[in-house]
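Sample entry (333 residues):
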Amino acid sequence: MLLRPLLLALSLLPALAGAAAAGSPSCQGRDLLAGLAPEARAEIDRTVAAAPFAQGNHWQARRGQQVIDIVGTFHLYDPRMDAPLARLKPLIAGAGRIYLEATDKEIAELKQAMGARPDMIVLQGPTLRERLSDTDWQRLAAAMTARGIPPFVAAKFQPWYVSMMLGVPACAMSAIGRGSDGLDHLIGEEARAAGVPLSALEPYDALFTALGNLSGDEQVEMIREALLTEPQSEDLMATMTDAYFREDHRMVWEFGKYLALHAPGADPARVAAGAARLEDLLIDRRNAAWAEVLRKAPEKRLLVAVGAGHLAGEKGLLNLLRQQGFTLERQAF
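Predicted structure, serialized as tokens:
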């Protein structure tokens, strides 16, 4: 699907902050949802409405004496985060424990593992130059150059890693180079300042394990998909960011599927299968594991901060908590 590389990139940002080179000035993309035809928007709105917990960046779950505040985050800093962070500070200070996708400990473990095992990022077989057509390679070389990465270096990266970088606009690469200071990172900083213990919801290599289920051919196909929309990457980032601050996180996923299904020459069955596989590997399975971690948490008051894309849907984190017997109520963000 067309937003697959961007969604993958934002999933990986907490772990890969600092791994990319600094790039261009601030992004100036436009929200593509604003330009949709009314009938197209109505179609997307219907699919969004069918998903449980499709809107809302802050929910509170209660079961007995246990209270869990669940905050949907965005992994790149935006000044619009400052106000929600200020409102969350009392909840952060009052929590018995805060759970993030990854704490500084897991990020350090991952970087150490990547240093010890280059194959986590670097191809051991044929390079991307050998695996892509001449046309696709030239487009990839130009896109990587714009991101400050020499093509001969990019040719040796794992395909999923390249598709991740293509999903982030060149104008945003500098933010990754400086480190990912999104809302989850800011919540972690506040927790440390308040002396509140932090825990990770998953091991440092959980995403790499999930990506390992994708075949080499599937990963190369992700590059081809990313190249189709690379010229629109600033607009896609703006679309995702604006939807997040409208607290309309499910809209991003459904908009991505709509674009893919209506792309020239798209195979609807293939698009649907690819979207379902990505959601299963990177979203649903992780949500199930996280819900189990929270089920076993002994603290009476928790705050959980995860990417907003994990909240909605039948297998979203919020619905899984509801199935565990929690009552959920949307909170001000």
